[in-house]
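Deliverable D5.2: sample structural annotation.
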Amino acid sequence: MILKVLILILILIVVPFLCGLLPTFFNSSNRTTVSVVYLSGMILSLAIFQLMSVPIVIADPFGFGLIMVLYSCLIGAVSIAGIVLTVIKIKKNGRLFAQATFSRNLTVEEIVEWIIFVILILFQIVMFMRMASFDGDDAYYVVESLLSTQTDTLYRIRPYTGLSTSFDLRHSLAVFPIWIAYISRASGIHSTIVAHHILGIVLIPLSYMIYIEIGRNVLKREKNKLPIFMIFVAIMHIFGNVSIYTNATFLITRTWQGKSMLANVCIPGVIWLLLNIFDSESIEGDRRLGLWFTLFSLNIVAAMSSTASVFLIALLIGMSGLVLTIREKNTQILLRLLIMCIPLVIYGAMYLLL
């Protein structure tokens, strides 16, 4: 059991953090925090999984074993590259993270507010695990993950009947269940347990990390208000079950689904990255190439999460680009953001043509 826990920590925490060192190498240190590194790494590792696994899903009905080996090698190589580049950056700049991350002393009120926020997050995680919600999608997506771990097949067995089926295009381009199967096979933990217990421990805090980064940008002149902002966001999620379709409902009750990733990671992630890339109060010479790279990777992750992302994320980025282009009177902004949407266009074309 201890070994399984250590493997989960390695796959879901250590490796994503090391992978995040690669894109953040191309950012200025003032834009690099611990959470930014982890977020960038998780997004990059999921993007690698999508890029690698979709061709295998299409070409090889029994390719799950190949995915296990190839993905492990790829994220291992990216982790090593991140470590090497980070050593180079520290030797050159003397530091990796933004000074503001550690230098500002918190007041007693802020400490109490952060404690309240952490308690709210722990409450959500505990309720996610104790009151595990099951719905109709379990019969398909969780079973699909289980079938991959037990038979090495990739969307070639119909979960509802257990019978062989033809290539399932609708679900095959969004391989989030296969990623769950990878975690299950690597750790030796049943796919259902991974989906309904393990992922909430990681993905719920992951979503709030994005909101923290959004808050840091919006409240950069009033950083003392950040914990209040986060408490407000947490309460909105706790009491957000006003419909089965809200992002709060998906975050706490259907965390393991790709649709929840789209609503609670990809869409807020786009907002976070756009706020930082187009920060009007930028420091001269500030490097943001890593943020652009993360935005490009996030579009790939969106395609991994749900086919609905092809138009939802593209629409969000396109409208943001149009507004920024008009504000800045610079057509290159819209062009650059359209380039970021290339993965969504490709996956949309594959969905229509295959």
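Annotation notes: Residues 2-278+286-353 form one domain. The longest helix spans residues 64-93.
The annotation will be released with the project's public dataset once the embargo ends.
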